[in-house]
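Key result, reporting period 2: structure in, sequence out.
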């Protein structure tokens, strides 16, 4: 039985990227026999709250949800419909949470993963005018690393403004906003601000462009938008330095774990990221965070009214609550 609930959350600062801007977001929370999951649909992957609810309805009627047979889950979810990765993630997360609660173990333990206390998440600075971006940084101090959204005219000045506000590491994410020639110029200009890596500089299908960057640029490049599942990774091998895995793209924890295995085999760096999410989806992604190189799990700290409590950055480092499953609970 899949129970669903809509939750509206409010962003602390307008969340603006090349994909658009938002001050709030509607999320779909699911409860499967006490296991909690979450879908945070994004329109550039063709999903909405409506498509998520529609998919969950069909899944509710057609799926047998046995937590001890999770290996068959992806195929079962795909047989209902292709795509719908956020909706699938909600089910996968809820079943992992329920299995962990049944066994009284955190999900990371189910995967044999040793917990760590030294996992720093980045804090995202949204596209705005440089002064506002400086203010966003100053108002959210104490992070080891900031991720600055770029990919628009004037973005060099935006990074310069954030650099004025912090000595912490800075990574940038162009969300496919640059052409290859533009990316070469911009990344060279950004070098003086000490950039850790550049996420998705180009359109995800611009393989020619990625090849050009490989020759012209030393800063590591991480692919995000074009990487949904494990099968998407090999085509980027040798063209980028790493990939950004998100549960809302992969369809859940199980496929994200497979992606980590594939990326490691291809000697690629691994980042784990998120959408605008509550502590349910963030806590789920955090279960795999000890395995990756870069962590960007700030969805729950970018919002001001998270209805849930779970894994959350404290002084910039992920703090895991001593609870089974994904460790998320409703705030009382
Ligand atoms: Mg990104």
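The corresponding designed sequence is given below.
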């Amino acid at each position: 039985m899949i129970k669903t609930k809509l939750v509206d959350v409010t962003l602390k600062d307008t969340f603006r990227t090349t994909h658009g801007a938002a001050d709030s977001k509607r999320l779909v929370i699911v409860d499967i026999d006490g296991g909690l999951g979450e879908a945070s649909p994004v329109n550039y992957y063709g999903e909405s709250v409506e498509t998520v609810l529609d998919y969950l309805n069909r899944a509710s009627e057609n799926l047998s949800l046995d937590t001890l047979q999770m290996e068959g889950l992806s195929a079962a979810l795909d047989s209902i419909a292709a795509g719908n990765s956020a909706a699938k993630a909600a089910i996968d997360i809820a079943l992992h949470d329920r299995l962990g609660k049944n066994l009284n173990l955190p999900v990371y333990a189910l995967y044999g993963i040793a917990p760590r206390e030294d996992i720093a998440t980045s804090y995202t600075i949204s596209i705005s005018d440089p002064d506002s971006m400086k203010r966003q940084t100053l108002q959210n101090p104490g992070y080891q690393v900031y991720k600055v959204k770029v990919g628009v005219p004037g973005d060099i000045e935006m990074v310069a403004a954030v650099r004025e506000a912090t000595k912490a590491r800075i990574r940038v994410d162009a969300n496919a906003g640059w052409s290859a020639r533009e990316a070469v110029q911009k990344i060279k200009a950004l070098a003086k601000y000490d950039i850790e890596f550049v996420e998705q500089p180009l359109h995800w299908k611009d393989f020619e462009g990625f090849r050009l960057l490989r020759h012209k640029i030393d800063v590591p490049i991480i692919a995000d938008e074009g990487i949904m599942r494990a099968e998407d990774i090999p085509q980027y091998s040798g063209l980028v330095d790493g990939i950004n895995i998100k549960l809302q793209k992969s369809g859940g924890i199980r496929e994200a774990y497979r992606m980590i295995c594939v990326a490691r085999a291809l000697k690629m760096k691994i980042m784990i990221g998120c959408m605008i999410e509550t502590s349910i989806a963030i806590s789920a992604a955090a279960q795999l965070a000890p395995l990756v190189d870069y962590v960007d799990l700030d969805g729950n700290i970018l919002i001001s009214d998270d209805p849930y409590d779970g894994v959350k950055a404290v002084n910039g480092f992920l703090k895991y609550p001593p609870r089974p499953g994904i460790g998320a609970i409703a705030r009382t």
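The first helix runs from residue 49 to 62. The chain has a mean pLDDT of 97. This case is discussed further under Risks and Mitigation.
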